[in-house]
TrEMBL record:
This is N-acetyl-gamma-glutamyl-phosphate reductase. Its EC number is 1.2.1.38. GO terms for molecular function: N-acetyl-gamma-glutamyl-phosphate reductase activity; NAD binding; NADP+ binding. It comes from Pseudoalteromonas haloplanktis (Alteromonas haloplanktis). SMART domains: Semialdhyde_dh (SM00859). GO terms for biological process: L-arginine biosynthetic process.
Length: 337
């Protein structure tokens, strides 16, 4: 299958380009940036010298000529672009008969109103919101395999949902709001320069209190109320979430452990039991690490991922694998040794 990547010069796009280039059955046939990008015509490996020899492909401007080329050169189009750009581009590629994997949040929420509230724009293609399959690979594999449009799950939601869905599915959660505190590395904010995400300016601070767009995303796909607070930390990549859960009265540690068994055979999920997960354990790895400790009806769940892999490009590749009927792990496990 031929894959093109739109937004290939960004952090998630470049990560995905490297995965596709190394994948046994995919060909990377084009890497694109915006029509007036400062990086157009540069080689991707000039921006990411670690991929010299692997990604010596030019970054092509996404113009009319490029759209005509993509018509012939791609089976799968991956959008590694800002939410609004993805909302505009996805229907164009769907109309060309392409299968679209969107790494942005442009098609993850069901309600048009939520786009206005949490994304700050009115969705221009609300008719597609119901058609998009939510790309949370372990939990929605059948829909992902069939869909023409896959809305790859958000980074923070990927960690939170994998940590909480087992408990929800087993009926162990009380009605109390679940508190999710999360810390992300700076690559989570993308490659574009800004003072707020300048590496030397970042220490450790919360942001997006009460209004981060991943709150409604987690809530919608969990079916439970949450209070989600992200923090930005001074490390390059990785997300760590500490999640406070009130269990129903009388829920035992055996019941909790049994609930997590639903993920025991998932090759990209590592259940750590009561051991403490860390950013170090997942950085540059395709896994979600999940752990928990319980006292009475209070449960603290911890989840760690690499935001650019399981939180973006890794999970996008997982979704592509599912579309091709391949194992989740093809091109992922063993790729980072
Ligand atoms: N970083 C992360 O950890 C995660 C990111 N995501 C999502 O993935 C998407 C990309 O994020 P990230 O990689 O961080 O972003 P970056 O800012 O690092 O990259 C954005 C890319 O899009 C390109 N671009 C911008 N405008 C256009 C356009 N109109 N047409 C084509 N290409 C364009 C940029 O190049 P140029 O401006 O030079 O044209 C660049 O290549 C976002 O929606 C983000 O929310 C999802 C999960 C995790
Ligand atoms: C540290 C940081 O800024 N992180 C980003 C989330 C990563 C991302 O790009 O979000 P999606 O998964 O929705 O695409 C943010 O909070 O906006």
């Amino acid at each position: 299958m031929n894959v093109v990547i739109i937004g290939a010069s960004g952090y998630s796009g470049a990560e995905l380009a490297s995965l596709v280039a190394k994948h046994p059955t995919l060909s990377l046939t084009g890497c694109y940036v915006s029509a007036h990008s400062l990086d157009k015509h540069k080689l991707l490996s000039e921006l990411y010298p670690e991929h010299l020899g692997l990604l010596d492909l030019p970054l092509q401007p996404l113009n009319e000529h490029a759209l005509a080329d993509i018509t012939h050169s791609a089976d799968y189009v991956c959008l590694c672009t800002d939410h609004k750009v993805s909302v505009d581009l996805a229907p164009q590629f769907l109309a060309l008969g392409k299968k679209v994997f969107d790494l942005s949040g442009g098609y993850r929420l069901a309600s048009n109103d939520d786009y206005l509230t949490y994304y700050g724009f009115e969705h221009q293609h609300p008719e597609l919101l119901n058609e998009a399959a939510y790309g949370l690979a372990e939990w929605n594999s059948e829909a992902i395999a069939k869909a023409q449009l896959v809305a790859v799950a958000g980074c923070y939601p990927t960690a939170a949902l994998n940590a909480l869905k087992p408990l929800q599915q087993a009926g162990l959660l009380s009605d109390e709001r679940i508190i999710i505190n999360a810390v992300s590395g700076v690559t989570g904010a993308g490659r574009k320069a800004s003072i707020g995400t300048h590496f030397c300016e970042v220490s450790l601070a919360p942001y997006g209190l009460f209004n981060h767009r991943h709150g409604p995303e987690i809530q919608q796909h969990l079916g439970h109320k949450v209070l989600f607070t992200p923090h930005l930390g001074n490390f390059p990549r990785g997300i760590l979430e500490t999640i406070y859960v009130q269990l129903k009265p009388g829920v035992t540690s055996e019941q909790v452990a049994k609930a997590y068994q639903v993920l025991a055979d998932e090759p990209l999920i590592r259940l750590l039991g009561s051991k403490i997960p860390s950013i170090k354990g997942v950085a540059k790895q395709p896994y979600v690490d999940i752990a928990w400790q319980q006292q009475g009806s209070q449960l603290i769940v911890m989840a760690a991922i690499d935001n650019l892999l399981k939180g973006a490009a890794g999970q996008a590749l997982q979704c592509i694998n599912l579309s091709m009927g391949l194992p989740h792990t093809t091109g992922l496990v063993g790729a980072f040794k």
